[in-house]
Specification:
Length: about 525
């Protein structure tokens, strides 16, 4: 079997991590007759994609989002909402503010369309906000949540599945919207009236509200909820009285038989006097009179947040007698736009400073052995690990996971980073090469002395394998103790969705490296 001879690429957007190479065709809207199965194509553009179709309540029309800019591949956030008759016909544009839009929903009375998006075309640091616009198109989109400085999404990070972002849902009377909010490590379910007012909490227990659904009357909600000590269960409750009922108890007998260790939440002062949130996971049978080795975990993104959700990796390391600590430095989600904007066009500055402040805080705890501190992180967390080893030797061992070292080569080889010029002053690397170099760990890698294990997936299209190769070769050239673990067939999401034996092997290699040096 010879397989594919070659791939003929004509578009920049030709691959997606976890999916692979994309077909050379467009996404269109079809309807299917439920009685006879006959499919009818409703949209047929040869140039544009149509996504997220939503029926209007009368069944006569379909609302969808589409990027109809001159070059959608290079302008992915220039999106508008459109409507088309269900039987096909002329399109009508609902919105005229070209910006990022997702999670489209039509109100039950057919008068409004809601979506989650941003005010401006790019500005990746902006919160995801909840907008509404008249279905008739005779009004500007209205930002319902902008005044609250909140993130309308599930930005929580974990190595579990099931904790998804669900599009906002309307109440039966079309006067209230329900939606998730990420804040301070939790993901809650909230509501807001169409005419504004107070943000109401529907489910605000510590933890993460993942997939959720309203019943047809809009009176009850079923939802997935997990936290630090529970992998996640299905719950249900009435919207009005707020009395939750647990419907499943998956894995609970198993978890009761395992000593997980205690997690302590702390607030500490960041490098700029800013308030930062972190968590310290102590080993089972923790003895405060002992000195423990520690591992700092740094999340990816950078948009996202660690928080109140079960993480196999953290508990695995804690079970082997490590103190594991993690936080949300500037650049991430859940703490407002100023927190996120702090590293705009300045990667490796405020984020690195906050991570070092966190390490200082933990190092000063009486049970921490300052001579046995390690650090690991993946994706953007891997970027910061590579940055750290070029700027300090305070850590005795590091593990760099699915990382970035070279912003030059990541531009054009990643499935998305060629469209993220905005964090670099809206310029490609050939216009301002110094800016890309200054925000690349490669610039300072010559200072590295810390023993570093490099782990990367060979099918990673987000942070391609060549990034891990550059880290490994640079460290070898410098004479730094290093090894390179490559996982075949796996994508950027190995830690949370890879083949089970490979996920187990990955954890084993991380532990092996820290055991050797700490």
């Amino acid at each position: 079997r010879l397989g594919i001879v070659y791939r003929h690429i004509t578009r920049v957007n030709y691959k997606t991590d976890g999916v692979g190479f994309l077909p050379d065709e467009r996404w269109h809207i079809w309807t299917v007759n439920a009685r006879n199965g006959k499919a009818t194509q409703t949209t047929d553009s040869e140039v544009f994609d149509e996504r997220e179709p939503r029926w209007t309540p009368d069944g006569e029309s379909i609302v969808f989002k589409s990027n109809r800019s001159d070059d959608p591949d290079f302008n992915p956030d220039t999106i508008d909402l459109w409507v088309v008759p269900a039987e096909g016909g002329d399109l009508r544009r609902i919105t005229s503010n070209i910006s990022r839009k997702s999670s489209v929903s039509v109100s039950p009375d057919g008068k409004w369309v809601s979506y989650v998006g941003k005010d401006k075309r790019s500005d990746w640091w902006q919160n995801e906000n909840l907008f509404v616009v008249p279905f008739g198109g005779n009004g500007e989109p209205r930002n319902l949540t902008g005044e609250f400085d909140i993130e309308v999404s599930n930005a929580g990070m974990s190595d579990l599945g099931g904790a998804d972002t669900v599009p906002p849902r309307w109440s039966a009377d079309s006067q209230t919207l329900y939606f998730q909010v990420s804040r301070h490590g939790d993901v809650t379910l909230n509501s807001l009236r169409l005419n504004g007012g107070k943000l109401e909490a529907i489910i605000d227990e510590p933890g993460v509200v993942g997939t959720w659904s309203l019943d047809s009357a809009g009176e009850r909600v079923a939802y997935f909820h997990g936290d630090f000590t529970d992998i996640g269960q299905v719950w249900a409750q009435d919207i009005d009285n707020g009395r939750p009922r647990k419907l499943t108890r998956a894995n609970q007998d198993l978890l009761k038989s395992i000593e997980l260790g205690e997690i302590e939440e702390v607030w500490f002062e960041g490098a700029a006097g800013n308030d930062l949130q972190g968590w310290i996971l102590k080993p089972p049978d923790f003895d405060p009179s002992k000195k423990y080795p520690s591992i700092l975990e740094i999340h990816g993104g950078p948009r996202g947040q660690y928080g109140n959700m079960f993480m196999h990796e953290f508990y695995y390391l804690a079970a082997h007698d490590y103190v594991v600590y993690f936080s949300n430095p500037r650049g991430g989600s859940g703490y407002g736009e100023e927190h996120a904007k702090a590293i705009w066009n300045a990667a490796g500055t405020a984020d690195y400073a906050d991570v070092m402040a966190w390490a200082d805080f933990v190092e000063n705890q009486p049970y921490i052995d300052a001579d046995r501190m390690g650090v690991t992180g993946g994706s953007y967390g891997g970027f910061l690990v590579n940055w750290i080893i070029g700027h300090t030797d305070r850590f005795k061992a590091t593990v760099s996971l699915r990382s970035i070292i070279n912003r030059f080569s990541n531009y054009g080889t990643s499935d998305m980073n060629w469209i993220r010029e905005e964090p670099f002053g809206d310029e490609p690397p050939w216009i301002n090469p110094d800016n890309y170099l200054n925000q690349s760990p490669l610039k300072a890698i010559g200072n590295a002395k810390t023993p570093t294990l490099v782990i990367h997936s060979e099918n990673d299209m987000r942070c391609p394998i060549e990034q891990g190769e550059q880290v490994f070769v640079a460290l070898k050239r410098l004479g730094v103790d290093t090894e390179f673990i490559r996982f075949p067939e796996e994508s950027h999401g190995l830690s949370r969705g890879g083949r089970t034996d490979r996920r187990v092997a990955r954890l084993g290699h991380i532990l092996r490296w820290f055991d050797r040096y700490l």
